[in-house]
Design brief:
The chain has helices at 2-19, 38-66, 73-98, 164-171, 173-190; strands spanning 30-34, 104-108, 113-119, 125-131, 135-136, 147-149, 152-154. It starts with a helix and ends with a helix. By secondary structure, the chain is α+β, with helices and mostly antiparallel strands. Helices cover 52% and strands 17% of the residues. The longest helix has 29 residues, at 38-66.
Length: 191
C-alpha cells in the first residue's frame, strides 16, 4: 500500500505543478520579473519582528529579576535604551530599506501597466499598479532605488529579468533609443 501512496502523491504534486504556479495572476498580466531575495527579506524582517516582540515581553521580567538599584539609574536607562533601540529602530529601519524591494513584477501589454508586489510593514504582500509613464529614474544612483513608480521607490535587479527587453521598456530605455534613431534619420535627410 505504501508504494501506491507515494506514486499517487507524486502524481498529484506533478499535476498541481503543471497546471499553475503560485505566482500566476492573469489579472496582473504576465510575470516579467522575480526578485531572488524575497525569502531573505521576509526572513530577516520576520526575525527582526519576532526578536522585538520577545524583547517587549522579556523587559518586565528582566527588570524584576535584575533588581538594578535606583542608585544606578543611569546604567538602567542605558540598558533599556539599548534594548529599545533593537526593539523598535531595527524593524523600522529594515522596513524602510526593504519596502521597495520588488518580489514580483507583472506587465500588461495591452494597457502598458505594471503591477509590482512588495512587502508591507506587517509582512503581507502589497500590490502597486503603475503605468510605464509613471516611471521616473533617479538622477543619482540611489542605494535602495532603481526607479520611482509615481512617488514610490522600487528596487529591482536588472540582471534578473529573463527578457532584457522587459527591463528596457520598464525603464523607458526603448523609447529614448527609438528617438535617437529618428534623430539620426533626420540628420541624414538634412545632409
Amino acid at each position: 500500500g505504501s508504494i501506491f501512496q507515494v506514486t499517487s502523491f507524486q502524481g498529484v504534486a506533478l499535476r498541481s505543478l503543471s497546471t499553475s504556479s503560485p505566482h500566476d495572476h492573469p489579472e496582473h498580466g504576465r510575470l516579467v520579473y522575480k526578485g531572488n531575495l524575497a525569502k531573505t527579506v521576509l526572513g530577516v524582517k520576520f526575525f527582526s519582528y519576532s526578536t522585538s516582540i520577545f524583547n517587549l515581553f522579556m523587559m518586565p521580567y528582566i527588570m524584576l529579576k535584575s533588581g538594578i538599584g535606583v542608585e544606578s539609574l543611569l546604567v538602567q536607562a542605558a540598558f533599556y535604551g539599548l534594548i529599545g533601540v533593537f526593539t523598535f529602530v531595527t524593524p523600522v529601519t529594515l522596513h524602510f530599506l526593504t519596502k521597495g524591494y520588488v518580489i514580483r513584477l507583472y506587465y500588461k501589454d495591452e494597457v502598458d501597466t505594471y503591477t509590482a508586489i512588495t512587502y508591507n510593514a506587517i509582512l503581507a504582500e502589497k500590490v502597486t499598479v503603475f503605468h510605464q509613464k509613471d516611471v521616473k529614474i533617479p538622477d543619482i544612483t540611489k542605494m535602495f532605488t532603481t526607479f520611482y513608480a509615481k512617488t514610490k521607490s522600487m528596487l529591482v535587479n536588472p540582471t534578473l529579468f529573463p527578457n532584457p527587453q522587459d527591463y528596457n521598456h520598464l525603464m523607458g530605455y526603448d523609447k529614448s533609443s527609438f528617438l535617437k534613431f529618428e534623430e539620426l534619420e533626420e540628420v541624414k535627410e538634412a545632409d
